[in-house]
Amino acid sequence: MLSNAFINACISLLGEENVLTKESELITYSYDATPGIPREIPGAVLFPQTTEQVQGIVKLCRENKVPIYPRGAGTCLSGGPVPLSKGVVISFQRMNKILEIDTDNLTATVQPGVVVATLNAEVAKYGLIYPPDPGSMAVATIGGTVAENAGGLRGLKYGVTKHYVMGMEVVLPTGEVFRFGGKTVKNVTAYDFTGLFVGSEGTLGIITEVILKLIPAPKYRKSMIAFFGTLEDAGQTVTDIIRAHVIPATLEIMDNMTIRTVENFAKVGLPTDAAALLLIEVDGNGKDGVEEEAKKVVEVIQKNKGKYKVAETDQERDNLWAARRAALPALAQVKPATVLEDATVPRTKIVDMLRAIQEIAKKYNLTIGTFGHAGDGNLHPTILVDPMDKDEMARLDKAIDEIFEAALKLGGTLSGEHGIGVAKKKYLKNEIGSSGIEVMKRLKKALDPDNILNPGKLVPMED
Amino acid sequence: MGKSIFENDEALKRELIRCMKCGNCMAVCPVYGTEVKESAVARGKIALGEAYLEGKIRDKDLMNLIYNCLVCKSCMLACPTGVKYDKIILALRHKLAKDLGKPWVKKLAFWALTHPSLFDKGLKAFSKMQGFFLEKRGPKLRAPRAFLRTLGKRFDEYFVLPEFASKSFRDSTPEVVEVSNPQATALFFTGCSINYLYPEIGDDILFVLKKNAIKTLIPKGQNCCGMPVMVHGDIEKAKELAKNNLDLFERINPEYIITGCASCGSALKHEYPMIFEGDQEYETKAKKWAEKVYDITSFLLKVIKLKKPKAELKLKVTYHDPCHLKKSMKVWVEPREILKAIPGVELVEMKKPDACCGSGGSYHLAYADTSLKILQSKMEDVKNTKAEVVATECPACMMQLGEGTQRYKVNAKVKHVISLLAEAYRRES
Ligand SMILES: Cc1cc2nc3c(=O)[nH]c(=O)nc-3n(C[C@H](O)[C@H](O)[C@H](O)COP(=O)(O)OP(=O)(O)OC[C@H]3O[C@@H](n4cnc5c(N)ncnc54)[C@H](O)[C@@H]3O)c2cc1C
Ligand code: SF4
Ligand code: SF4
After folding, report:
1. What is the pLDDT of residues A178-216, one digit of tens each?
2. What residue ranges define each of the domains in chain A, with the CATH number in brackets?
3. Do A27 and B56 touch (CB under 8 A)?
4. What is the pLDDT of residues A121-146, one digit of tens each?
5. Which end of chain A lies in a sparser environment, N or C, as judged by fewer CB atoms within 10 Å?
6. Cβ A27–B57 below 8 Å, yes or no?
């Protein structure tokens, strides 16, 4: 329980309308989008609008030993913003100003609560894009995506969030404000703090401002869809496209289970007997270059016995994409709950990983549809379950353990996008070893000696 | 316990777990957009529902938060897993009303609406003495007198209401309106707003139907569609009202049923089959009649061939999508087609024509602050189009938008789409 004095101090800092304390309101900050993890109700929810206010909150919390949980849109898929030890949630959703769009230096300076899609809509007015495009971009915040180092469909060609962060302002868990980086493309002053704070999942510092890199929007694009009789043919196509030195903006894969479910749900005309489909888009600023790349991709598809369709108009492109957009909605109709994982392997191992997932599904008698970013090896095995079926939930846990084991065996990683948070903490040692855990603990202790910033996440302090 | 979500907690839980907490609904929810807090959006309310069913909350504010929703269904269009939020919110309100009692403001409205005959008499009496409560504010507009302003925030100098008609639409119209060589027969389901507040829209609809050679049935036995009581969780009363209407349809057996009010249309088409789930007799009836329900614009364009008006109506018009028409009945092309069919009408789109106006039944009174902020951004959007007329297809939106033009000084008239069409026809002769 937070003391009245603490709450009053928050109110005088932020104003009454920016402090939530009623039980019902607090319950709505007890979760994120992660299924099956514990929920906890915070003692208060605070909405700062300035760095000074954030600093004020941190000082108050330090004095009172109150844990702090930063939160963006709460779309995290690993439990990041869940207030495990109560304390306070700092929501950044009202600290959401785009401070500057610099069309000459190609940067945007924003507050952490800016929604990714909102930023993209603003910079589009200048013919620019901010490329990281997580599936949740309609609501996810810059603060949250920076803290999770989010990636998206365009990751293969354009990279992920960390490639677009040029500088930041953070409030440290000890209360100081720290700025690093800036608008220069080159900057090697001091440590590479971007690497430290991007992906730190709200455990090392509170992001209060970010300078982001923008790029010109590609003028031309060409989309196509290809169907394959075997997984191997689809996998070989992915490899061969890269070997032909074409880097598509998107290169998505969908397995047979997903294809069947999508077709059943959305009736978009997919062949339900295909073992896999690939959705490919090439883009660029020269028309001829794009046409040529598209031609190369088609040749590769033909060589690997794929049937394909190239979209000639925007309407046709939209139709092709409808299949991908329908993947999650369609799968979600099969059972009451969906568990979306993001185990990632080197792209040459996608077929092995898909096979492993199919075997695990069979072994534990679970329905798993897999789709994902074939180009960067980031797969989304989507496990369909009924939370009211205790037996199924037990099998689910085992299946997830084995999926991660398989990914690591193939030289992959626990998480390509969604982060470690609480959901994957127990597997962390398997990937980075005891020495890795030790490094993390030392970093955490150095920056957050009182362990008040997002405690219980990412860093297994208890190990 | 029945299987229905309204009677069975397990069924309700089953709907609630379909929400994967992805948060997508935040992108479109008007209440969230204004208040920027989790309890404002569908995800938050679903979480509250879960906690309530698990016995984790008993705090008084729960009711307040669960009612802080326009039931505009915007979230449902953005939801990747197809959560049936409309059903959930009604079921939650139903459950809370049963467990904790109804909020008082709503009780008043309930009483009136659920006694159709008394309501009818009451309104007629009221229309005669409305001057005592409401002063005239321009043609057919009334505003609450100063002594009422203490009742609530919204009742300030800008609050306006349409004048209560001295004679309701159904009372001033025969039950059967014949035309020579009818191409179809349709039952006009007027709904309360058109019947009591906007009888002139009823006249316009009837006029347009006549022009298009439709024999129209306007049975006096029809009553409130039930939506107002339904959204307040009184499913039992809503069922009573719905049964009356469905039985009336059975007796009259019309070829088509037409509505000019988006909420009535949505109720007949979607909510009736929903509330009768598990009640074999009425579920069958509700589904059967739902198939025959059309909003007036779809009827004119899809069922029959619209008689194109020949006279010009030189007007710059923008169109506001009523939530219940676009998001529930999935109609947004036809009203625009009707406008475009009128010679001289220039249709200019708002940036967000389908953004909710913030009316939401009694929401605009109970949650005046948020409602007005939503309305204000709507009106800014309208203003930027420089349109002379905001056309729409729902009397509740018209009331809200009408107030908006006064409050935020927007120089545009608010009209029902069909009233514009009727005007064009009238100019022909
Ligand atoms: C349907 C769906 C699709 C998704 N698709 C993708 C995808 O394609 N790619 C991908 O990478 N992810 C994806 N995600 C996961 C999620 O959207 C991302 O992790 C996103 O970055 C979270 O952003 P948020 O604003 O919701 O942050 P939150 O969930 O609120 O928080 C995430 C983490 O960031 C921390 N944090 C938030 N703000 C700050 C701040 N200002 N300072 C410090 N720490 C902060 C929190 O403490 C937490 O640990 C998806 C999620 C869903 C539900
Ligand atoms: S119905 Fe409308 S107001 Fe209610 S939660 Fe959905 S989008 Fe928000
Ligand atoms: S969009 Fe649907 S699934 Fe996602 S949080 Fe909202 S209601 Fe739940």
Report:
1. 999 999 999 999 999 999 999 999 999 999 999 999 999
2. 4-91 (3.30.43.10), 98-216 (3.30.465.10), 219-328 (3.30.70.3450)
3. yes
4. 999 999 999 999 999 999 999 999 99
5. N
6. yes
